[in-house]
Design brief:
Number of strands: 8
Largest sheet: 8 strands, mixed
Helix content: 25-40%
Distance between the termini: 27 Å
Order of helices and strands: HEEHEHEEHEHEHHEH
Number of helices: 8
Structural class: alpha/beta
Radius of gyration: 17 Å
C-alpha cells in the first residue's frame, strides 16, 4: 500500500521523544532507550502503529519497539500512538519507533540486544519465486531474528496469503523454530489475546480468513548451520 507524501512527518518525528532517529547508533543497547529495564518485543514493519500502540497500552510491563522503513508511515504511527496514550492518560514510556530497512536488521540490532517476541503482520508476500528472498520470513531473515531472540523467544506471524503462510511454516521449521500454535482462520479459532491490525480488519471485512502462527526458538544443531546454505535453500513448491 503506497503512502502519500506527508511533509509534516519527518519534522514531527525529529522532535518526538519516543522516536529513535539513528537506529545503528542504538545497536547493542536498545534497552537503554527505555526508562525501565523490561522484556523487549518488536514489530517488524509497524505501519500506522495501531497494533503496537494497543499492545503497549495493555502490557505496561513490556517494552515495545516498532521498526518501519517509511518515515511518512511512522509519522502517522507517531500521531496514532500519542493520541492513544493521551486518551489513556499515560506517557509513551514503554514504546519506541525507529526508521530502518528490516532486511538490514543486523546493522541496527545485535550484541546485547535481546528480544522475547517478534511480531510480523501482513508483510509483502513476494510470491514470485525470484523474490522469495525478500520475504520477512525467508530463512536468511529468520537467521537474523534467531540471533536476537532469547532462548524460547517467539515469533507471532499473521498473513492473509495462504501461499506465504505455507511457505513460512516450512521456513520456520528449517530454521529451528518449534510450532506452538497454528490456525488458518484466526477469527474463528477463539485464540486470545488477538490485537487486530488495520489490514486484518480490512481483509476480514472482505471475508478473507487470517492465517496465524506462533513459533518458538528451539535449539538448532551446529551442523545445521554448517550445511544449510541460505542462498541456495530450495524454494517451497
Amino acid at each position: 500500500m503506497r503512502m502519500r507524501l506527508k511533509k509534516w512527518a519527518r519534522p514531527e518525528l525529529a522532535v518526538c521523544p519516543f522516536f529513535i532517529g539513528s537506529a545503528p547508533e542504538q545497536k547493542g543497547r536498545w534497552g537503554e532507550a527505555f526508562p525501565r529495564e523490561q522484556p523487549l518485543w518488536a514489530e517488524m514493519g509497524c505501519g500506522k502503529g495501531g497494533f503496537l500502540s494497543a499492545w503497549a497500552l495493555s502490557c505496561p510491563e513490556v517494552n515495545f519497539l516498532g521498526i518501519d522503513m517509511i518515515s511518512d508511515m511512522l509519522g502517522v504511527a507517531r500521531r496514532r500512538i500519542q493520541a492513544d496514550f493521551d486518551q489513556a492518560g499515560r506517557p509513551v514510556d514503554n514504546l519506541r519507533l525507529t526508521c530502518y530497512d528490516i532486511s538490514r536488521l543486523e546493522e541496527c540490532m545485535g550484541g546485547g540486544d535481546r528480544l522475547e517476541r517478534i511480531f510480523i503482520n501482513f508483510c509483502n508476500p513476494w510470491n514470485k519465486p525470484k523474490h522469495y528472498k525478500r520475504r520477512l520470513t525467508h530463512p536468511r531473515q529468520l537467521e537474523k531474528y534467531r540471533s536476537l531472540l532469547k532462548d524460547e523467544g517467539e515469533i507471532w506471524f499473521k498473513t492473509d496469503d495462504p501461499t506465504l503462510f505455507r511457505h513460512s511454516l516450512q521456513y520456520f521449521q528449517e530454521m529451528g523454530f518449534a510450532q506452538i500454535y497454528q490456525t488458518d482462520d484466526l477469527h474463528q479459532s477463539g485464540f486470545s489475546p488477538n490485537v487486530e491490525t488495520e489490514h486484518e480488519i480490512m481483509y476480514s471485512q472482505q471475508g478473507m480468513p487470517i492465517h496465524f502462527a506462533i513459533v518458538r526458538k528451539a535449539a538448532l544443531p551446529e551442523e545445521k548451520f554448517v550445511h544449510l546454505s541460505l542462498e541456495k535453500t530450495s524454494q517451497p513448491s
